[in-house]
Amino acid sequence: MSAYPSPLPATMTAIAIAAPGGPEVLQPVNLPVPMPGPGEVLVKVAFAGVNGPDVAQRKGAYPPPPGASPIPGLEISGQVARLGEGVTTLLPGQPVCALVSGGGYAEWCLAKAEHCLPVPPGLSLAEAAALPETLFTVWHNVFQRAYARDGEALLVHGGTSGIGSMAIRLGKLFGLTVIVTCGSPAKCEAALALGADHAIDYKAQDFVAEVARITDRRGVEIVLDMVSGDYVPRNLRCLAEDGRHVTIAVQGGAKAELNMAVIMSRRYTLTGSTLRPRSDAFKGLLADEIAREVWPLVAGGELRPVMDRTFPLRDAAAAHARMDAGAHIGKIVLAA
Fold it and tell me: What stretch or stretches form a coiled coil here (predicted)?
């Protein structure tokens, strides 16, 4: 096992969930520094991204999959500190960002080597930590599951969220027309400034009618849905023939009543996914494709995450309070 730096501390600060509840249940604890197993690396965490699944886990609605750390945090950046057996693709001291299945809210975190991406010059470690979870999610769901193509239109709910802002940036880089919904005129303005082609204030406007107007009643080819529930039948009314509806969260409820005759007659595809429970092999293949197709845009400075605020690791509760308030635009990160 290669060493960098030497020696390692015996313990670290991490953020544990004392019990399901509000942001106040996030508490700093002292834990042993983990050691990497075969195919893993130990990363000295610089920053950890804060995401919707972390909030759901804190509330008790999204438990970690078997074998995953109970510490929240699904994306990190930092320096490789130790190499596990068989790791030959990374070097001690190398700056990386990584998709992890848990454990990100800590000073040290284990990551699968195949789930790490190098941090190129010009990309800050704070920005790097804000990329993996949203980039992997949007790429898989919009481009792999919904097979987005140049010239198509994409409707995204929550346009200024981490996922929404990544969908805007990535969609525009790959030739999509991006329509978003937001909860206020200020957020609509922010979404347009991020690159969205159209922004709909869903509290003041009927987004179904607005999508029809914007598309001359043709509809969009893809809906990226984080709401579900009673939004689904409304989303389907926004779809063009042969449209694809992709669900990645159920913030508005898990059940929807659908007219299957409409789905058949208009040849809709309804799909969805969750990323965290997927196999290491799947995530490795996804990382490989992102490294080929998207990472050159990151290295060239064309793709950057939208950054909201940075909080110290020990203030994870304050970061979650900001998430709960819905005031953020883009990504919140924790500085370890």
Answer: none
pTM of the full predicted structure? 0.95
Q: Considering just the CA atoms, what is the radius of gyration of the chain in Å?
A: 20
Domain extents in the chain: 11-131+276-335, 136-272
Q: Report residue 84 as tokens.
A: 């596990």
Bond from prior residue into 64 cis (ω within 30 degrees of 0) = no
Does the domain at residues 136-272 carry the CATH identifier 3.20.20.70? no
Q: How far is the C-alpha of 326 from the C-alpha of 336, rounded, in Å?
A: 23
How many of the other CB atoms lie within 10 Å of CB of 288? 11
- Report the residue count for the chain: 336
Residue with tokens 């990504």: 331
Instruction: Report residue 247 as tokens.
Output: 């669900």
Determine contact, residues 225/157, Cβ cutoff 8 Å: yes
The CA distance from 328 to 216, in Å, is 32
Check: CB of residue 17 under 8 Å from CB of residue 70. Answer: yes
Token pair in block for residue 332: 């919140």
Integer Cα distance of 10 and 210 in angstroms: 57
Q: 191: closest CA among 294, 34, 219, 182?
A: 182
Look at strands 153-157 and 177-182 and give their pairing: parallel
Block means of pLDDT (10 residues each) for the chain, 336 residues, are 77 98 98 98 98 96 93 98 97 97 98 98 98 98 97 96 96 98 97 98 97 98 96 97 96 92 97 94 98 98 97 98 94 98
User: Minimal CA–CA distance to 334: which of 26, 115, 84?
Assistant: 26
CATH class of 11-131+276-335: alpha beta
